[in-house]
Amino acid sequence: MRRIGPAATALLLLALAPALAIDVPVVFTGPLDSPGTLQLLALCFVFAGVALSYDLLFGFTGLLSFGHALYVAVGVYATAIALTKWEWGLWPTLAFVAFVALALPLVLGAVSLRVGGIAFAMVTLAFAQAGTVLVQKNPYGWTGGEEGIGLAFDHVPDVFVGVLNTKNLYWLALGYAAAVFVVVRLAVGSSAGHVWRAIRENERRVEVIGLRPFPFKLAAFVLASFLASAGGVVWLLLIGGATPEVTTANFTLSLLVMVVLGGAGTRYGAMIGGFLYTLLDQRLGSLGGSSAVQGLPDVLRVPLSEPLFLLGALFVAVVFFVPGGLGGLPLRLRGLWTRRAQPEAGS
């Protein structure tokens, strides 16, 4: 009989979380099966998947983009506008979003990838800034400007509406993260995936052996952007509205931090980084305002009350002490343990 792998086991255990009334003190404010905890976990899964889509570009292909937020925003705003402003049904909306999520990165990627290195990063940033301005201008009243728009749930299936159905949104987000993981693993393990990693290591050498890097980089760009847009759709259903924060450069920088934190170009690193960063970002603010922290001396209370300070300190600590990211930590510890055990065995 074929054994169930660790990834499938972890996925099965995570899928059972809504049935477990277990308290996890400090980490969550309620039991695992409570709506608040399930929504937080669902948000963590969404960012785990989006971070992995960014890692496909940055970690596996070596393309530093500052505009990945634009494609998350495509999923968020295109879905919200079609459902709320145009009052389309769910399936026409998803077909429209899928078309835009493929066509837009195909066009913008074809332009951006004409240059490389920091110039590519600046061009992607420029396109993302154009998206930000477009949202802020609120054309035809579609985007809601700085206020954003709330999602009309008339055409959304009932299983994804209401607090009592939070567990279904949790499973949707978990399914999204699992699907992104499978797609990225299949893509990276394919012939194109080997070329992506060769481009990351030395693009000139790829050209010398007779391959044109441009189509391969464009394929990675379109696939990563499409997966990010799918994450935007799930994020919209989870949050219940579109806000301009998903269009900003800070959003992309957060994805970059997630990938570096977990480990760029590793099997699980980006997902671990995305999950952990989102969890800390959501929980550190509450912990900083707790009576336990507020009762500390100023020298401890002030930094512990600032979530961004703590996240920054964690990022610096990981960069200095775990250069490969948290995803590679078990392998490093195993290597350290093996090196220490060898002299003892030889003595």
TrEMBL record:
Keywords tagged on the record: Cell membrane, Membrane, Signal, Transmembrane, Transmembrane helix
Signal peptide: 1-21
InterPro entries: ABC_transp_permease, LivM-like
Cellular location(s): Cell membrane
Residue stretches spanning the membrane: 37-56, 63-83, 89-108, 169-196, 216-239, 251-280, 308-329
Membrane topology recorded in Swiss-Prot or TrEMBL: Multi-pass membrane protein
GO cellular component: plasma membrane
Gene Ontology MF terms: branched-chain amino acid transmembrane transporter activity
UniProt-recorded name of the protein: ABC-type branched-chain amino acid transport system permease component
Originating species: Gaiella occulta
